[in-house]
């Protein structure tokens, strides 16, 4: 692995473990046994490393999230969406747990984040329309934007909410899966009888991960 890639992966590991605000470039350099000068050859400051990590995250998220056109079975579509969002939420959990602070100090990164989230919201719109066409959701066009916004807000802010509600946030995979269950619960009141059956199957699958 190239030194630049080692720096990025070390930073991600440390940010997730100890929190981005608690880690300096010196910590990152020491973690992979290189000099601070060697790190600065690749990145001028920590913020550039954060941007690099976000580029990896956004590329992976968009690749995973774009629905495959042949996937017409609704449970597959929804599971694909939830797995994509929350698997990457776990992998890049430092970013979600401290999102407002990270974005507020970097306008360029904030702009990139907004662009990615707009694409994700568009894809989520397409998934919800597929559910309606398959008679799995009882939803009219007027109510669609509110539902999509609520789901998107839940996905993007779940870890921030968890961080705010506990004195010592311990982000675990169980916390991630609780977010998946919350999103399913948002959809259930809008589901048809057939849709509710599929959502409950998916719900049972998520719960079984921690049985």
Explain this structure to me?
Keywords: DNA-binding. This is Transcriptional regulator, TetR family. One of its GO terms (molecular function) is DNA binding. The protein has 211 residues and is mainly alpha-helical. It has two domains: 1-44, Arc Repressor Mutant, subunit A (Orthogonal Bundle), CATH 1.10.10.60; 47-208, Orthogonal Bundle (Tetracycline Repressor, domain 2), CATH 1.10.357. It has eleven helices and no strands. It has helices spanning 3-18, 25-31, 36-42, 46-65, 74-91, 93-97, 99-104, 107-133, 144-165, 173-187, 193-208. Helix 1 (3-18) packs across helix 2 and helix 5 (74-91) packs antiparallel against helix 10 (173-187). The longest helix is centred in the middle third of the chain and has 27 residues, at 107-133. The mean pLDDT is 86.
Which key features would you list for this structure?
single chain, 211 residues, mainly alpha, Arc Repressor Mutant, subunit A, Tetracycline Repressor, domain 2, 11 helices, 75% helix, DNA-binding, DNA binding, Homeodomain-like_sf, HTH_TetR
